[in-house]
Amino acid sequence: MSANTVLLDFSIEPSRINDELSRKDIIKVIKENLEKYFGNLKMIYDMLVDDGYMCIFNDNSATMLNVRFFNEGLITINIEYYRKDGAEQRISFESSRQLENALVKELNLLHGQTLPALDRGPIVKYFPTADERIIEYDIDKVLFDKRSDFQKIQIVHSKTLGNMLILDELQNIAEADLIYTETLMQRGKEDYKGKEICILGGGDGALLYELLKENPKNVVMLEIDDLVMEACNKYMNSICGDVLEVRKADNYEIIVGDCMVWLDKYIKDGRKFDYVFGDLTDIPISDTPTGEIWDFIRTILEKSFAVLNDTGKFMTHGNGASCPESLEMYEEQLKKLKPTVKFTRDTAFVPSFMEDWIFYQVQFDKQ
Question: Based on the number of CB atoms within 10 Å of its own CB, is 81 exposed (0-12), middle (13-18) or buried (19 or more)?
């Protein structure tokens, strides 16, 4: 027995979502096509929301269908139902793709367009940018697809970007993304020779691999998800070498565990580093700097500076340059740190993100 979820998504002209009459026509087409698979559907809820519109349908078998309209022109249909052991799927993967293509075709014709339906196929090729635009990638193979205790892990192959690490449906790093790692570590601007370094996260191994080329005294990497490292060691070794296979050497050590626990240990032991890298979560997209992820970011900042030498630096990635409000909120958190800190930022176009990305260099303010 299991809970089955099917997600469909497609794009239309944004103006059609904001027009009430056009939206009603779209809902009618969606409902008629869904009823080919789920029988008579009844709309049980609908409302306008800040980013568009949503409505919920169900049928007589407790299947729930959540339809979301986003102002930017994206429509998603999330189908959820409970399947008993031995029972057939309500809708197969192949049928869901056929349904999706039919909706795209009919909605285009409804609007007087003759564009062909997108060629979706069995491989997901669409991932969001920082500001939640949808980009189509030239992905032709799935090399790894498993779920760990912490997240969904995929490695896919792009014809132009090489192998790509996808975590929880978000593009993370590709073989073409050396610029990401070099900008994060400020290669050519920072001197790592003979330095003590701590990496928080970094499970793809790229940062550790590049830092070791700079002859540091020692690097410790704290990564919670061993399965990420196993996958990257097998399919991403062009960016990580053999550092994820040889977990400990004279000048580095990889520790599988919660970085928060290890930071607490280092604080208690009085251990200090010249550099701490935050290679963890992106800065959230939110209206205010509140919630679990923002709390996590503030805690990471506080604990990282507690293990930094007086002249040390905290280095981290931020978010896309297209998200100035979130970057500003992050910088406000930096300004609230005690002791006070100062920061600089750098920008690089990351090929697999297909956008400019912001990186921060933060240190104690001695003035």
Answer: buried
Say how far apart CA 54 and CA 75 lie, in whole Å.
10
Task: Please answer whether residues 25 and 35 qualify as being in contact, where contact means their C-beta atoms are separated by less than 8 angstroms.
Answer: no
Q: How do the pLDDT tens digits run along the chain, 367 residues long? A: 566 778 888 787 888 888 888 888 889 889 988 888 888 888 888 999 888 899 999 887 778 899 999 888 888 898 887 777 777 777 876 777 788 878 877 777 665 544 444 455 567 777 877 777 778 899 999 999 999 999 999 999 999 999 999 998 889 999 999 999 999 999 999 999 999 999 999 999 999 999 999 999 999 999 999 999 999 999 999 999 999 999 999 999 999 999 999 999 999 999 999 999 999 988 888 778 888 889 999 999 999 999 999 999 999 999 999 899 999 999 999 999 999 999 999 999 999 999 999 999 999 998 7
Amino acid, single-letter form, for residue 126 = Y
- CA 69 – CA 19 distance, rounded (Å): 12
Write the CA distances from 247 to 59, 279, 313, integer angstroms.
53, 18, 25
Look up residue 86 and give its amino acid: G
> Which residues are paired to 320 by β-bridges?
357
On whether the CB atoms of residues 185 and 210 are closer than 8 A, the answer is yes
User: Phi then psi for 51, rounded to 5 degrees?
Assistant: -100, 15
Q: What is the DSSP letter of 89?
A: P
**Which are the catalytic amino acids?**
279
